[in-house]
Every structure is written in structure tokens, then in C-alpha cells.
From TrEMBL:
The keyword Manganese does not apply. Residues 1-19 form the signal peptide. It comes from the Bacteria. This is Extracellular solute-binding protein. Keywords: Signal. It comes from Streptomyces cuspidosporus. InterPro entries: Bact_solute-bd_prot1 (IPR050490), SBP (IPR006059). Coiled coil: none annotated. The keyword Signal applies.
Length: 445
């Protein structure tokens, strides 16, 4: 399990949570793979007389578990696919940079996390095949902002988008009812439509009649991430300058997160920690920001006793939490075959299959009209029409300005600054100074 900082994506959730996403939506799961293997792949292996394509990933991309590798190998009997996965992106990514620097040890296909795509696109693009020119690639299949994230200023696209994390709000209907709030998802969405301030105001109303010792939201860090992720310009400007200290988006997210903490709307938890998981089981908070991959985590941790109590409503503003890419290094010994496989894995039809099996929300908008995606409902969440909810959110996500150190900045704001406010009772001013000092040291500012 990854901590809440660092890699924000569905792969931060255990494979067991993916399996828990629900009968009728997802099929079963398989082993996460051997985390001791190096991400480089390295060729060889089974498939005597075949061309072996190696794929280096982190966490659980789900291609193997969803049966896509097996399907491709059946369609192409001369191809053998071997995946090597490292559990944590913070271990995988430095190795990828090392291999790119030496030009050796690379897999034929390498995964790239969204928090790292800007750095790879701006500093390592010459090491990757331009997939915009690959046969079968249709730019319009992807959401425009997703395509732009992996495209250089001179128009080369070094990675094809695999998934994204459009956000909604998951909420407890039973707790809302006891607090005197609407429970039907469309009415709930109207409570905060268009404005994160309204979300906090709803929280204040909830706390006036909060059942038992429950709170409105899980954490200040969760509020910050949700709010900041719904903005285009956050930590960097278009020129690549670090602007987070003066960013209106960061200020809005910080102010709302610290207000939520000060007004006792939060359960003072840190996401992806054991105490956070236990709070799901005990029903300690009423709302949480959730991309598609979070649904399985909630189902697993909240358990059967909470089935039908959770529901899904649109977030105040569309935002993105997670997503990755796959690219083909020029050092690949099988560039042509690897490119064909990368194109096939990210085609709308395969992205729809991956969602159906593994809850990976497609970055290919062309997949949204396919029944596996567009008609998807989730039994655990009261048959919430998640296909429609997340498709609508995905189309409204702003084109975010990414920077090479987004991950470091966000991690220290939430794990240093906001934890001090939420758990230690420090003033927002002192906590902000602590967070910025840590960030400046990390970035040698």
C-alpha cells in the first residue's frame, strides 16, 4: 500500500481492493507479480522461437490480470510478453531514469506515472519513440488534455495514455439522512455543484447533526488534493516556473483544507494508512473524494455491512487524481513489435476491457460510448451509474500544467503542512512555513 503522498493513483490501492470492486462490474484478480524483479525486463524467458516483448511497470497496471496479454499472444502466436513490476513508483522511477541515462537495462515498453510525465517529456523525450506516428494511433481517441501531457513542444508524443482518475464524491447515505441532508445522488450533487466552498458549507451543516462521533470528511489532505486537482495551474506556470507559493489554486485548496480541520469537519486521518482503512470499517466519516479506483478500496475496507450505504455523486468541479502512460524506448530491441503492442493495449476497446476487469478508468474518450464503460453501474454503491458519472467528470477535467516536481510539492504540503494542522493543532501559518521550508530544501531553492 502506498502512502497518500507520492503516487496518486488506483495502483496505490491493493489488488485486493480491485478485486473487491464488485460482482457484475469486475472479474477476479491475479497475483500482483514479483516485486523483486527489476523493471528493466531484459528479454529471454518462455516462448521458444518467439519474439519476447518485455514490459516494465509499477504497482498493478492490470493488463495481465485482465487477460490482455493472453489475448494479444493468442492473436499473435509469434509474440511472447513478459512483465516485470516494482510495487512502488518511488522505487521504479529512479531506476527508469538510470536505465534511460545509460541506454541499457530498459524494457521494450516502459510505464510512466502522471507525476513524472512532465520530467520525462521535457528531459528524456529523445530516448523514446514518437508514438504519434505509430500506425493505428488516432489522437482524437484520447482526451485532449491527456494526449497533451505526453507531447513535447515540437509535437512528439512519447507515451500513450493508459488511464486517468476523474473524481467524484463518495458519501454515506445513512449518515447524510441522520444529519438531515438529502440522500439521492443528484440532490446531493446539487448541494455543492460548481463550488468547493459549498462542499465545506455542507460539511458544517452535517456537523450540526452529525450522528455519533462521525465527521464529514476523512482528512484535510484529502480536501486539499481534491480541490487543487480541479485546477489547471497549480504548482508551476506554463514557462516551467515554480509558483505554488503564490498559486490561487493552492491557496484555495489550502484555505479550504485548513478550514475543514479548524471547524472539526475532518476525522484527522492520513489517507492510505491503517487508521484510515479502519475508519471506513467503523463508518467514521461521511464523504471522501473518490476516483474510480477508490470504489474498490471503499468496498473492501467498509465491508459487507456498509453495502448500499455508500453512494457516488458528482464532485463540485471536475478534477483528476491519477493516471499513467506507456512508452517505447528507442533502446528497445523490438521497437516495431513493442509499438504495435503499446498501441493495441491503449486502444479504446482494450481500455474498456481493463475498466470492466480492473476499474482503470479509460483515458481514451472513445471508450466511453462502449457498453462496458458507458452503462457501468456499481452494485455496492446502490447501482450508482458510475459510467455516466465518471465520463462526465472526465470530459470536464482542465488541461493541467504539470511540472517535474509536482509530487514533491504536493507530498510535503499534505504530509508536512496539513498533517500538522489536522493532527498537531498547529496554526495554518506555522504549518505552511514548515511545508514550504521542507519543499525548498528538497528542491534546493
Amino acid at each position: 500500500m502506498l502512502r497518500s503522498s507520492g503516487t496518486y493513483r488506483r495502483r496505490a490501492v491493493t489488488l485486493a481492493a480491485v478485486a473487491a470492486l464488485g460482482a457484475g462490474l469486475l472479474a477476479g484478480c491475479a497475483d500482483d507479480g514479483d516485486d523483486s524483479k527489476d523493471s528493466s525486463g531484459g528479454g529471454g524467458g518462455g516462448g521458444k522461437g518467439k519474439t519476447t516483448i518485455t514490459i516494465g511497470t509499477f504497482g498493478v497496471f492490470g493488463y495481465k490480470q485482465a487477460g490482455l496479454y493472453a489475448e494479444y499472444m493468442k492473436l499473435h502466436p509469434d509474440i511472447n510478453i513478459e512483465e516485470s513490476s516494482i510495487e512502488r513508483n518511488e522505487n521504479y522511477y529512479p531506476q527508469l531514469l538510470t536505465h534511460l541515462g545509460t541506454g541499457s537495462g530498459l524494457a521494450d515498453i516502459q510505464a510512466i506515472e502522471v507525476d513524472n510525465i512532465n520530467e520525462v517529456t521535457t528531459t528524456q523525450a529523445d530516448k523514446f519513440v514518437d508514438l504519434a506516428k505509430a500506425p493505428g494511433v488516432k489522437k482524437d481517441n484520447w482526451l485532449s488534455w491527456k494526449w497533451a501531457q505526453a507531447t513535447t513542444k515540437d509535437g512528439r508524443t512519447i507515451g500513450l495514455g493508459t488511464d486517468i482518475g476523474p473524481m467524484a464524491i463518495c458519501y454515506r447515505k445513512d449518515l447524510f439522512e441522520q444529519a438531515g441532508l438529502p440522500t439521492e445522488r443528484d440532490e446531493v450533487a446539487k448541494l455543492w455543484a460548481g463550488d468547493w466552498n459549498k462542499y465545506i458549507e455542507t460539511g458544517k451543516k452535517y456537523m450540526k447533526k452529525a450522528p455519533g462521533d462521525t465527521t464529514f470528511v476523512d482528512s484535510a489532505g484529502g480536501v486539499f488534493n481534491a480541490v487543487v486537482s480541479s485546477n489547471a495551474k497549480r504548482y508551476y506556470d506554463e514557462s516551467g516556473k515554480i509558483i505554488y507559493k503564490d498559486s490561487p489554486a493552492v491557496k484555495e485548496a489550502w484555505d479550504l483544507a485548513t478550514t475543514a480541520s479548524k471547524d472539526k469537519l475532518t476525522a484527522k486521518l492520513q489517507q492510505f494508512q491503517k487508521s484510515w482503512d479502519q475508519a471506513y470499517s467503523n463508518g467514521k466519516f461521511a464523504t471522501v473524494s473518490c476516483p474510480p479506483w477508490m470504489l474498490g478500496h471503499i468496498k473492501e475496507k467498509a465491508g459487507a455491512k456498509a453495502e448500499g450505504k455508500w453512494d457516488v455523486a458528482a464532485a463540485p468541479r471536475p478534477g483528476n487524481w491519477g493516471g499513467s502512460f506507456i512508452g517505447v524506448p528507442k533502446a528497445s530491441k523490438h521497437q516495431e513489435e513493442a509499438t504495435k503492442l503499446a498501441v493495441w493495449l491503449t486502444a479504446p476497446e482494450q481500455q474498456a476491457k481493463l475498466f470492466e476487469k480492473q476499474a482503470s478508468w479509460p483515458s481514451a474518450q472513445a471508450a466511453y460510448s462502449l457498453p462496458q464503460v458507458g452503462d457501468a453501474k456499481h452494485p455496492y454503491f446502490g447501482d450508482a451509474p458510475i459510467g455516466k458519472i465518471f465520463a462526465e467528470a472526465a470530459k470536464g477535467i482542465p488541461t493541467q500544467v504539470l511540472g517535474p516536481k509536482d509530487q514533491i510539492i504536493r507530498q510535503n504540503i499534505t504530509d508536512i503542512g496539513l498533517l500538522q494542522v489536522d493532527q498537531q493543532g498547529k496554526s495554518p501559518k506555522d504549518a505552511w512555513e514548515a511545508a514550504t521550508k521542507t519543499i525548498d530544501n528538497a528542491l534546493d531553492q
